[in-house]
Each structure stands twice: as structure tokens, then as C-alpha cells.
Design goal:
By secondary structure, the protein is an alpha/beta fold. The protein is 29% helix and 27% strand.
Length: 313
């Protein structure tokens, strides 16, 4: 699979037809590709360019917690988006593995020798300060440093990235998102948190009250923001708009528990966009979801929500 300049290889081993040598590697899962991750990847790319080598990411399609804790974590980015963000940092190759029981039980030294050295013969390896690998997480930055002379590579550990006196991390960003603290999360990501989906037909109530909406389902694998109303940027067929998004179960209308839905009223927009793909960037939370006593009260609140969002433009 090739995305522009980035070549992606799945479950690569050196017995494949293509052979790799003398790479500059960056290791990590990189969920979110946040400011801290970017420093790791940028160092990898810089080492490659300065030494006339190719840069490469070693990562997993699924988070190790899927096997270690038997849970599916909520991701900041889906896999395809994660690869796109890595590509934007001018990486040459991305080697993606399925994290399975084989990797779970692989001794840290075997990981270094059998996965990193035998497959890629790296001249440089870069990780974050908290990179762990191997059985029982016994592989550490210190271990990578220890074996650098034996395997003839230079190791660099990127220290924690501090923003506003806080250590940037994927877990903290997830926490901020679940609390609806979009501005803080976006600052640590260095881009706006977003979700994507296919526009589906709703009950068309919005049209009857003069606030038509584009409806789509929230990706269940992505960390969930709180139910509420948000000021958002909307992208449809690469065109940008602004909008007011309600995420929740529409308690004013629905008396039964239903699957939560994203409904975005796109400002100054009237096109038919059913079945098209939509990307929504969350800029700011406007208010919590609320049940209103009547549709008139709902209309008044939506009018106020739109007014508040237009102030943000």
C-alpha cells in the first residue's frame, strides 16, 4: 500500500523479496501523533536525511492493550488517519505489525535482535522516554542504549514534551477529550481532534424547524467526547464549512435509549449530501446536551447555539 510518498508494509520480515538495510527507525504506537510523538518522528527523519538514509516507523495496527489486558482501547485516531499524520512528517517507510501473543511473549533482547536488527539493520533508533517493549515490558530505553554498540546503531531517547507545565501524552489527551476540554486537547495534538463518517438519513425533524442537519454515527473505536453541542469545522469533498454539532440521544424528542448520533447543522449550507463522507473537527464545546420542555424551547436554544458559534468564526 502506498500513500503519496509513504510506503506501508504489513508484517514485514527479512525473508520477503524486498530487503532493507541501514534505516533510521522510530518505534512507538503513536496514537494521536501528538506534539511528543512528532519530536520522536522528526528526530528519526532528521537522522536519516543527515546521513543519506531512509527513515522508517515501526508500529502496530492494534494497541498492545488489546492482547495484554484483553480490551479494545478508545483511540484518538483510527489507523488510516494515524498513517496519514505519520506521512505528513515525511517518513519514507512504515512497517506495521499485528500485536499478537507472539509479540506479547517475545523477550526484549529477541525483539531487538530478531525484529529490529535482522529485519532492518538500523543505523539509528529513536524512541520516546517511556517506550517499553518485550515480554512483561522489560524492554526500555536503557536496554536500547545498552545494546547499541553490540548491534552498531546510535540510540536517541526523546525526553517528555512539556506544554504549559504539563507532560503531553496520549492518555492525558484522551482524558481531556472525555471531559470535553477540546481546546486543551487540540493544543497538545497540534491539530483539531476530528471524527469522520458517512452521512445517513435521520428523522428530518431539523428541516421542519428550519435547522437541517447532516447526521452520522460516532466511530465507536474513537475516544468519545461528552454529549453536548460543539462548534465545529466541517469538511465535505475537501471543502470547509463551519457548523454546530449536537452529539447525543436527542432527549427532547426520544423517550427511549437510542444509539447516540452526531447531527451537524452546517452554517449557510443547503446542498443534498446524503451518503457522502464527512469530516468534523471539534473546536469548542458550547454546552451540555439538555432535554427541553417543547420544540419551541429547543428552537430558541438552537438559535442561541448558532449565534454563539458564529461568534467563534
Amino acid at each position: 500500500m502506498k500513500l503519496n510518498n509513504l510506503k506501508v508494509f504489513y508484517n514485514y520480515y527479512s525473508n520477503n523479496e524486498i530487503q532493507f538495510n541501514n534505516l533510521s527507525l522510530a518505534l512507538g504506537f503513536f496514537d494521536g501523533v501528538h506534539l511528543g510523538h512528532k519530536k520522536v518522528i522528526e528526530n528519526c527523519v532528521e537522522k536519516a536525511k543527515n546521513n543519506n538514509l531512509k527513515s522508517a516507523i515501526i508500529t502496530f495496527i492494534n494497541h498492545p492493550k488489546c492482547i495484554i489486558n484483553n480490551i479494545v482501547p478508545k483511540y484518538i485516531l483510527d489507523f488510516k488517519s494515524r498513517i496519514k499524520h505519520i506521512e505528513e512528517l515525511n517518513v519514507d517507510y512504515c512497517f506495521v505489525y499485528n500485536f499478537d501473543k507472539k509479540f506479547l511473549n517475545l523477550d526484549y533482547y529477541q525483539y531487538i535482535q530478531n525484529i529490529l536488527i535482522n529485519n532492518f539493520h538500523p543505523k539509528f533508533i529513536t524512541t520516546g522516554f517511556n517506550h517499553y517493549f518485550g515480554k512483561n515490558r522489560e524492554g526500555t530505553p536503557e536496554k536500547l542504549k545498552k545494546y547499541s554498540k553490540q548491534f552498531d546503531y546510535t540510540y536517541t531517547k526523546i525526553e517528555q514534551f512539556i506544554l504549559d507545565d504539563i507532560v503531553v501524552s496520549s492518555s492525558l489527551i484522551r482524558e481531556k477529550l472525555t471531559l470535553g476540554e477540546l481546546e486543551s486537547a487540540n493544543k497538545m495534538l497540534s491539530y483539531n481532534f476530528y471524527i469522520e463518517g458517512k452521512i445517513i438519513e435521520g428523522n428530518k425533524l431539523g428541516r421542519t424547524i428550519n435547522f437541517p442537519t447532516a447526521n452520522f454515527l460516532y466511530n465507536q473505536n474513537i475516544v468519545q467526547v461528552p454529549y453536548g453541542v460543539y462548534f465545529v469545522k466541517v469538511f465535505i469533498e475537501n471543502k470547509k464549512y463551519f457548523g454546530v454539532l449536537n452529539f447525543g440521544t436527542k432527549p427532547t424528542i426520544n423517550k427511549l435509549n437510542i444509539e447516540p448520533l452526531c447531527e451537524v447543522h452546517i452554517l449557510d449550507f443547503s446542498q443534498n449530501i446524503y451518503n457522502k463522507r464527512i469530516k468534523v473537527e471539534f473546536i469548542k464545546k458550547i454546552r451540555d446536551e439538555k432535554k427541553f420542555d417543547s420544540l419551541d424551547d429547543l428552537k430558541k436554544q438552537i438559535t442561541l447555539d448558532i449565534k454563539n458559534c458564529k461568534i467563534e468564526i
